[in-house]
Amino acid sequence: MIICVAVVGLQNNPLYIQSFTDGDDALKLHYIVHCSLDVIDERVNNPKKIGSTLNETYLGLLYPSENYKVYGYLTNTKVKFILVTTDEDLKDADVRSFFRQFHAAYVDAVSNPFHVPGKRITSRAFAERVSTIVRSFGTSTTI
Amino acid sequence: MAVGGHFMEKLKQKWNAQEDEKWGPNIERKERRDMIGVGRTKQYANALEKSLGKGKQEVSLNAFAFLFSELVQYNQTRVDNIAELERRLEDAGYGVGLRVLELLCHREKGNRRETRLLGILSFVHSTVWKSLFGKVADSLEKGTEHEDEYMISERELLVNRFISVPKDMGNFNCGAFVAGIVKGVLDGAGFPAVVSAHFVPVEGQPRPRTTILIKFSEEVLQREARLG
């Protein structure tokens, strides 16, 4: 169950935050997203020598807190995608494919000549696409 | 960049037409969404409801040449000197570069981010050039005088193919647009640089070849030295 998705820009400024459950407080979600930015920075700047390469875009599970899990994804232009979900076991492949579709929607939104890079994403089409992707998350197992 | 009304209008119409084509006017969107759950093989009632294919990755050269010549003429009437004109073309290319970087990084299989200088240069030299102009750039060289200079050369830049510069404009090169694109790509990837386009005369050929000169800023070189 996805709780919220966020797109954060170069200078850690929020470009797009959307929550998908009614219960939770928007402020709390903003705070969780903000904390996870620190984890991303530390992952990127101090790479662990064993295992993951420095250049992967998918960062994986950033940190599990008491009832949430946070996943991260970093694009080539230092734009970060954050995904907050409920605490259940999610297959890695599912999350990867979610981020891939999300990246596609993001690229289309940025290709808009009227989008100023660094400003918030105001495209309605982007919001609709994100809702579609979120709704089909977890229900389809084959691509 | 302040662009006048006429140009923006045309762009806005084109964008709206594209969005409508993708999503359909509002009434149809709900039906389209209802069809998503039908199953992997979708049967469409008529050809109009099929989703758009990837399409040809090419745009006609004539269309681009006309659009580019209009862009140059439009800017020419609004500036006082050559340097300003070059700067405007570069700004126009900058936006293209940013978006091209996002798009190509997403399409490229492999999920890798470029963090090394040579990596990003060869990315520009092959991938970007291939997707924009249909072929890789002619050559990529390292400057001999300074550590931070690199050059990408091309015998005949696509954008310059239908342009001849009058003598009184001196050294002006419409390749400033391509220099702007390269600048956008490098800036977006985290390698700030000063990029410019120059004509380099070659013996044995009537037209000089074009060189894009890339001069990286200090912090890039320091970071590169640190990464070893």
UniProtKB/TrEMBL annotation, chain A:
Cross-referenced InterPro entries: Longin-like_dom_sf, Sedlin, TRAPPC2L
> Please, one GO biological process term?
endoplasmic reticulum to Golgi vesicle-mediated transport
GO CC terms on record?
A: cytoplasm
| Family membership | Belongs to the TRAPP small subunits family. Sedlin subfamily.
Q: What is this protein called?
A: Trafficking protein particle complex subunit 2-like protein
Native source species: Picea sitchensis (Sitka spruce)
From TrEMBL, chain B:
Q: Where in the cell is it found?
A: Endoplasmic reticulum; Golgi apparatus, cis-Golgi network
Protein name (Swiss-Prot/TrEMBL): Trafficking protein particle complex subunit
**PANTHER family annotated for this entry?**
41-2 PROTEIN ANTIGEN-RELATED, TRAFFICKING PROTEIN PARTICLE COMPLEX SUBUNIT 5
One family from Pfam that matches here is TRAPP
GO CC, sorted alphabetically, is: endoplasmic reticulum; TRAPPI protein complex; TRAPPII protein complex; TRAPPIII protein complex
Annotated keywords: Endoplasmic reticulum, ER-Golgi transport, Golgi apparatus, Transport
Query: Which InterPro entries does this UniProt record tie to the protein?
Result: NO_sig/Golgi_transp_ligand-bd, TRAPP-I_su5, TRAPP_component
Major site of localization recorded for this protein? endoplasmic reticulum
Quaternary structure? Part of the multisubunit TRAPP (transport protein particle) complex.
What GO biological process terms are annotated to this protein in UniProt? Answer: endoplasmic reticulum to Golgi vesicle-mediated transport
Q: Which domain of life is it from?
A: Eukaryota
- Is Endoplasmic reticulum a UniProt keyword of this protein? yes
Q: Which family does it belong to?
A: Belongs to the TRAPP small subunits family. BET3 subfamily.
